[in-house]
Amino acid sequence: xxxxxxxxxxxxxxxxxxxxxxxxxxxxxxxxxxxxxxxxxxxxxxxxxxxxxxxxxxxxxxxxxxxxxxxxxxxxxxxxxxxxxxxxxxxxxxxxxxxxxxxxxxxxxxxxxxxxxxxxxxxxxxxxxxxxxxxxxxxxxxxxxxxxxxxxx
Length: 153
Known about the structure:
The chain is of the alpha+beta class. The chain has helices spanning 67-86, 90-102, 120-129, 140-152, and strands at residues 11-14, 25-33, 38-43, 52-56, 60-63. The chain has four helices and five strands, in the order E-E-E-E-E-H-H-H-H. It is elongated, with a radius of gyration of 20 Å.
């Protein structure tokens, strides 16, 4: 989450240690302090409800209302990385690269760990041609609306 997206009075999920898989603590932003990337928060739950402290903005991970979707996405990423580590097979990687190349999409690529790396629009185009029935990615306007609702929550 960008520092500019953090609003005073809103609730967020904060991590004491900024690492994937660490638990989120519900906090409310009390004030922004200077330009050093610090903010004052009040813990709303967890082991220390009511505690007010100064934390770095990078510890604020997600709007509290978006936490379930965020944690689901994080879990999916963990499983995908875990599966790609297990399935590291050069023959499959070569076959996938060939299939992606044959789509003619210049953005289609496979990362070194076997994970797909390309814009959502490219994935959507390829999925439509293959008749896979994948939901389209949100448009910029839909994304703005989602962000607006997140700020209100």
